[in-house]
């Protein structure tokens, strides 16, 4: 899921023109408009004549809090919404649903209604969310039109496969609002991490005692997931290795689920050298039961002793042979924050340590917010005051990019 916070930082104060053409999927678009407005965007809706058979202009006027444009030459048209000025004002034009008909018009440069005129006149990026019958979609004319538009720099999201309104099964369903929002944030985002291949680890690990019990910790995975999502939104190619976390898997991020520290070790060690950056946000269990019982252990005595053995230290292993990979560690502490975190920074040979006093209210495990201090081998500590994990993630990524830029000179 695209976090509302990444939408917020990216679309805030931006003008998004939503073009709605005539398909049943138009009923999903008021939700898209609502989400964009909630994130601070100025939303202007343009409807084709056919679109108005599916959703009324009043619905869009209400959710966008702006007049809706339905005609090319409306008598009440003010200067700021006349087609050329709206095309100029737009930071992004999204056409959703985009029917085969409007796609054909855009591909051939027709300007016969307000929407096609705006798309022809705008210099802003255009995102199309096609929706149509499967045969119309697979028809070579539509495919060629889409290819033409892509070659000219149009963005296309979907369509998805599934049950279509016409009763057919196949490709032609408009993408879900969440996917459209994801692409909007990708297109409008700073894209400053597009050269980066980032591996993020997240969540706790679970070390089985028997088939029903395990040793673990309180990590929720939120910090690591926020980092993975923020990096992907800024254009990085992200791989997420996650211990068991009860969070929705982030969309369009290669996600590798693991349970134990040993599995996390294996998955991380075989991948990290191909990465530009590794962020070890996972709370890895330092120990695992020496033996895992095949059957549920029965309570037989008054006391029970569990023998634990050390797990491999993944970060330490990477730090001793890191090549050109930039390595970020997390230090979860309950006392002597800076001293302990600096000790780990040196011992594990990392480039950046995110130190975290997990006892502070609003910080650490399972909290929506965090308070961290960034430590580097040579610089002064930088404290980031309490903020959402999404914003902290952005600041950590900013710091990584700043150090890298500095090293390049
Ligand atoms: N880490 C790791 N492998 C382990 C333990 C920790 O890669 N077996 C990583 C964590 O992902 C984190 C960093 O090392 O990025 C520090 O983890 P932390 O739990 O704070 O410290 P430990 O090194 O485990 O030390 P201690 O538990 O003694 O504080």
Q: Specify the structural class.
A: alpha/beta
Q: How far apart are the first and last residues' alpha carbons, in Å?
A: 37 Å
Uncertain stretches of 5 or more adjacent residues:
none
Which of globular, elongated, flat, extended, rod-shaped describes the shape? Answer: elongated
Q: Proportion of β residues?
A: 15-25%
| Major sheet description | 8 strands, mixed
Mean pLDDT rating: 93
> How many structural units, i.e. domains?
2
CATH topology of the largest domain: Rossmann fold
- Quick one: how many beta strands? 19
Radius of gyration: 26 Å
CATH homology-level superfamily of the largest domain? CoaB-like
Side by side, the strands of the main sheet go 12-11-8-13-16-17-18-19
Structure annotation, total helices: 14
- In CATH, the architecture of the largest domain is 3-Layer(aba) Sandwich
Ions and ligands: cytidine-5'-triphosphate
> Under the CATH scheme, which class of the largest domain?
Alpha Beta
Protein described:
The protein contains 14 helices and 19 strands. The chain is of the alpha/beta class and 409 residues long. The model has no long low-confidence stretch (mean pLDDT 93). α4 packs across α6. The protein has 2 domains: 185 residues, 3-Layer(aba) Sandwich (Rossmann fold), CATH 3.40.50; 212 residues, CoaB-like (Rossmann fold, 3-Layer(aba) Sandwich), CATH 3.40.50. The radius of gyration is 26 Å and the shape is elongated. The structure holds cytidine-5'-triphosphate (CTP).
């Amino acid at each position: 899921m695209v976090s509302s916070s990444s939408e917020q930082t990216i679309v805030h104060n931006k003008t998004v023109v939503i073009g709605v053409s005539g398909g049943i999927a138009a009923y999903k678009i008021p939700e898209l408009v609502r989400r964009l407005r909630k994130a601070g965007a100025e939303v202007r809706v343009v409807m084709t004549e056919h679109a108005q058979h599916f959703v009324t202009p009043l619905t869009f006027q209400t959710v966008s809090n702006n007049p809706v444009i339905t005609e090319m030459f409306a008598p009440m048209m003010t200067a700021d919404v006349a087609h050329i000025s709206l095309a100029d004002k737009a930071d992004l034009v999204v056409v959703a649903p985009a029917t085969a008909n409007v796609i054909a018009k855009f591909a051939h440069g027709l300007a016969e209604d307000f929407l096609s005129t705006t798309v022809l006149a705008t210099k802003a990026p255009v995102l199309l969310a096609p929706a149509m019958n499967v045969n119309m979609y697979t028809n070579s004319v539509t495919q060629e039109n889409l290819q033409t538009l892509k070659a000219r720099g149009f963005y296309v999201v979907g369509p998805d496969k599934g049950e279509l309104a016409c009763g057919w099964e196949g490709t032609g369903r408009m993408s879900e609002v969440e996917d459209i929002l994801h692409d909007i944030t990708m297109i409008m985002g700073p894209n400053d991490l597009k050269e980066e291949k980032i591996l993020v680890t997240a969540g706790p690990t679970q070390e089985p005692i028997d088939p029903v019990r395990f040793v673990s910790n309180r990590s929720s995975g939120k910090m690591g997931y926020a980092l993975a999502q923020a990096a992907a939104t800024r254009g990085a190619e992200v791989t997420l290795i996650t211990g068991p976390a009860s969070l929705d898997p982030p969309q369009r991020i290669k996600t590798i689920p693991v349970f134990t520290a040993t599995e996390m070790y294996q998955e991380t060690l075989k991948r990290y050298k191909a990465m530009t950056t590794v962020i070890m946000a996972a709370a890895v269990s330092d120990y695992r039961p020496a033996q895992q019982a095949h059957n549920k252990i029965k309570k037989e005595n008054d006391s029970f002793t569990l023998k634990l053995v050390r797990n491999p230290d993944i970060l330490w292993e990477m730090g001793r042979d890191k090549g050109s990979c930039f390595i970020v560690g997390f230090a979860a502490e309950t006392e002597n924050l800076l001293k302990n975190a600096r000790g780990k920074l040196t011992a594990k040979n990392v480039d950046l340590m995110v130190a975290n006093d997990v006892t502070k209210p609003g910080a650490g495990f399972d909290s929506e917010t965090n308070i961290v201090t960034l430590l580097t081998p040579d610089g002064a500590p930088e404290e980031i005051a309490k903020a959402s994990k999404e914003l902290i993630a952005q600041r950590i990524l900013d710091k990584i990019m700043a150090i890298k830029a500095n090293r390049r000179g």
